[in-house]
Write a structure and sequence with these properties.
With about 300 residues, the protein is α/β, with parallel strands linked by helices. The chain contains 15 helices and five strands.
Amino acid sequence: MRLAARWRQQSRSTLKRISLILNLKRCPMINRLDFVVVGPQRTGSSWLDRALRTHPKVALPAFTKETFAFDSETEIDLHTYFQRYFSNAESGQKVGEIGPTYFHNPRARDRLRTNFPDLKIIILLRDPVERTYSLFRHEVAKGRSPDDLFRAIEQNPEIVESGRYAKHVVDWQRDFGNDRVQLLWFDDIEARGAQMVMDVHEFIGVSRRQLNPEILDKYGSGVVPRFQLLATMAARTARFFRSAGMDRVVEGAKRIGLKPLFFQGGDTSKLALSQAHREYLEQVHADDIRFILEQKRTFHGGKS
């Protein structure tokens, strides 16, 4: 066991050095973030990432959607961060990242506020019950959770806590100011996705640009792997490569079609939201449901 742990540590260290060499093509011109989409998880953040990448004046992290830099337990080195993820960013672009795990993490919020006090924050709102159950299914698909909702929440309370809108939205608004926090609605992706993205363009300070129609049809839904063991192994392997800075390897595997092979093909009906689960989550998220309804009334039918 010790030899295996030492080998993993040495391998990760070597891969990190290789990654830094690959990213040292030129020094980054960028040393700031202009905006961050803080999630939470399972609210359309991957779709928004793809949509924003189509704008020539928007720079997002190279070779990955999420960096996990600001909620990491280790101290962040901003020079290395910008060097690794934004070495190709250009002057005049608005620089941001998509970090859905930041939403409920006080460490991430504090680091972002300390380092980028003028940062603009984007939060995606979704029915709290649907969002929590979607995250539960996602954790099961990745092999990180048992397939029983109650045991899953007991083992990983963040499945619920990450969707505490009534608390966390207020925290972000308090720390950054209401005028620097934009609220978006998950339901709008299908109903008015193009307009929604142009609203984001305006908020972050780039020209409003019409979205490619192909992007509108590509927002995720929950999946179930055919073989759970293979999904677990694939997820752990991906985390290993990303922790070593080898995001290109993971993204390359996705491009050649390996992701569906490992994470799709199972029976989705096995994890359908039952009435009992819905009633339980409605009780757990009672405050958050009220908060969402109040926000929708304030923004006149979900238009931010």
